[in-house]
Amino acid sequence: MPTSKAAGVNLPPDESCPATPPNRNTGVSYAQAAVQPPTSTARHTTPSAEPAIKAQSPRMSSSPSQSYASAVEKPQPPPEERRHRSSRAERKTSTDSEALQEQDKAERRKKRREREERERTEWERYETEKHRRREERRARNERERERHASDVSGASSPAVPSSPQVSKKELHKPTKIREDSASEGKHEGDEKPALVSAVQNGIRCAPLNVPLPRRLQTAAVLWHTLSMSICFSIFWFALAIPFTWPVLVPYLIYIFFFANSHADGSSPYRRSEFMRNLTLWRLYTEYFPMRLHRTAELDPNKNYIFAYHPHGIIGHGAWGNFVTEATGFKHLFPGITNTLLTLDANFQIPFNREYLLAMGLASVSKKSCEALLRGEYLKKQLLQKQRNITQPTTWFGRRRHQHVVPEGGRAITIVVGGARESLEAQPGTMRLVVRKRKGFLKLAIRERAGVVPVLSFGENDLYEQVVPGEGSWAHRMQMAVKKAFGFTIPLIHARGVFNYDVGLMPYRHEVNTVVGAPIFPLKPCAGEPTDEEVAEFQKRYIEELMKLWDEWKDVFAKDRRPGPEGELQIIE
């Protein structure tokens, strides 16, 4: 058998070993070493070959127990195979990562579904409890009304069963009088106000898992409640920056001395329909919720004055129904262009003026009302378009047959009771100030416009009010502010953004605004109407207002106070 001179080992014949290149360190090919591994004993080596091996492979001599196979370099796979292996490893890693991501997504979806289901269950439980307590309150008030009616008629009062204890978690306004206290002869004034009850029993905070739509509704109402304060704060913040003075000073001079767009009848033609149709106002009306009801159709060829009752604290119903398009005014009264009127003082607040004009509000002054009902701004604009230097006939006037302005389809909304009526806003009541308000009736007679009574059920239930006694310092202060500025400051409280007991946010109480049939003056009057004509017109208006109340009070005012306090009362 031949012997390798380089390694000193017996190897098989050359034909049994494929031709492979020898290792440059050992001189033995990988195939030869695999067929017969060498041993490290000296019996298979010769003295003459040992120095050569040591000279050629010093590392093997230092570790005689190592085999040639372990010392031989393994051949690397081709580049294509390496690419395939790396791509397979990457795919495996990517597959594992995607599996982990899918598993994580599935867990998150499961947790989200569980959370939504839990929130839905809690919300359904809350709604069920709220409706149950509302029905109990309505039944209790109905029994109180029956008992009061029997007392008035002289019949013996039936025994009133005691009602279940009212939980302190009940939302919105508190119960005015409980039946157990009524049977014991306690007075309604003995009932603790909601604010005192909140201080003694603790403030009820809103849960964290409130659905997103309700949070957005709260934000919309918060914006409207604080819009005037926000505009005023932005103005003072800008005034503190000297760089804004070149713009603010001319702006202030303009709005205090020259601005007249709020009183010239131009509001319906300059307002922003985009602002009036914002999604913000749909969320605003869904907060209460707020609905507009029509009892009679209005002829678009005539003009109207919507007399809104009651004023409430802020007049949320007037804003939601007669300023925005969220409740569908233009669909219920097609062809009628309506404008809500407010005090001149609101147009003297910087930035708030532009906001009100964009929403289409105007001044409640006599000049503004007449300009709106007559369409004077539109006539003026058409007259300016008609005058042309190329037409000498238009230099000193205009021809009558050109640009005829339609005489109908215009309406204004006046909150008749004003600031005085806001002091009478109590939950479950309808106390109106009408007899001293004759200006809108005179205006209707002069302009031959129809007066439309409007009753907003639930407007007085949005806030609780602390009413100071007659002659007290608080009452005198309120009346002094009203006399000086045209508005007053009611001592109100309701709920907050994150609680149900303390704050300036209105309660979530349903507001139903019912629009009655129009009342037209019997005799047109070109000049100033007489006192007899105004008194007769006012009598007809009050009768129509009472008729509207009697028709809808059992539908939209079921939770009103028992007895005369829960009926419509005209105090002034």
Written account of the structure:
By secondary structure, this protein is of the alpha/beta class. Among the domains are: 14-71, no CATH class; 212-388 and 408-557, no CATH class. Helices cover 46% and strands 8% of the residues. It contains 21 helices and eleven strands. Strands 1-10-7-2-5-3-4 form a seven-stranded mixed beta sheet, with helices on both faces. Helix 15 (352-359) links the parallel strand 3 (337-342) and strand 4. The longest helix is centred in the N-terminal third of the chain and has 75 residues, at 79-153. It starts with 29 loop residues before the first helix and ends with a strand.
Characterize the overall form.
elongated
Distance between the termini: 137 Å
- Counting H and I runs of at least 4 residues, what is the number of helices? 21
- Largest beta sheet: strand ordering: 1-10-7-2-5-3-4
Summarize the biggest pleated sheet: 7 strands, mixed
Share of residues in helices: 40-55%
What labels would you give this structure?
single chain, 572 residues, alpha/beta, 7-stranded mixed beta sheet, 21 helices, 8% strand, elongated, disordered N terminus, transmembrane, DAGAT, transmembrane helix, lipid metabolism
